[in-house]
Structure formats: C-alpha cells, structure tokens
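Late entry, evening session. Most of the bench is empty. Finally got around to the prediction I had been postponing all week. Sequence below, unchanged from the version circulated by S.P.
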Amino acid sequence: MLTISHIHHIAIIASDYETSKAFYCDILGFTLQEEVYREARDSWKGDLALNGQYVIELFSFPSPPARPTQPEACGLRHLAFCVEDIDAAVQHLTTKGVNCEAIRVDPLTDKRFTFFSDPDGLPLELYQA
C-alpha cells in the first residue's frame, strides 16, 4: 500500500532565474536554503523554504518553452499559499509592483482569495486562513 505523508517540494522552471529568485525570496518571503549551478545543464537550482520548511525547487534551463495558456493549461493549474490577512498580503504585493485580481469569496468555504502571477506567468493564489 502506498502511503504519502506530505508534499516534499514543488519544482518551478524560471526563464530568468535571478528575477524569479528575487520574486519568491524578496517579495513572497521564501528563504534560499541552498543554491547550485549545474554546468553540464547550464542550469541553476535553488532550494527555497517557507518558515524553515523546504517547499520549492527553483530551476533555470536555457530557453524553456512558455506556459501554453492561463490558467487552464493541462497539468498544474496554480499554487495556493495560505495567509492570515489577505488584505495586508495584497497590499504588500501591490507595493512591490505585483498585480492581484480582485479579492473574491469561495462560495463553498466562505474564505477570501485572490490570484496573481510569478515573473513567468505561473498562476499563484493567496487564500485566507
């Protein structure tokens, strides 16, 4: 029997590694735990943590293809991050130049949420706890 205990990490390929690293670390608050340049692949790999927990592998590869559509491409639709105060979180993102959609209410949970994008257009969501 397969027993999965938790999600280990999420891998994200960035078109511009430094720009995406700054976005995830400086704007969203992740910390860079480890970083390595893989010369054979001409690729950076950064391990990003949230509150001390390893969450995202951030990669760069030469000339990665663009995401096909927003947000209903086949595959991963979006990543959702939980926040205590969605208004303060949106205000923070806005002051950093990140555009957020209007805050909506989930009709099933009555929780507030919004969407925004990373530098490569990956849809991201803030969901109020």
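Two things to note before I forget:
The first strand starts at residue 10 and ends at 14.
Helices lie at 17-27, 86-95.
Will write this up properly tomorrow.
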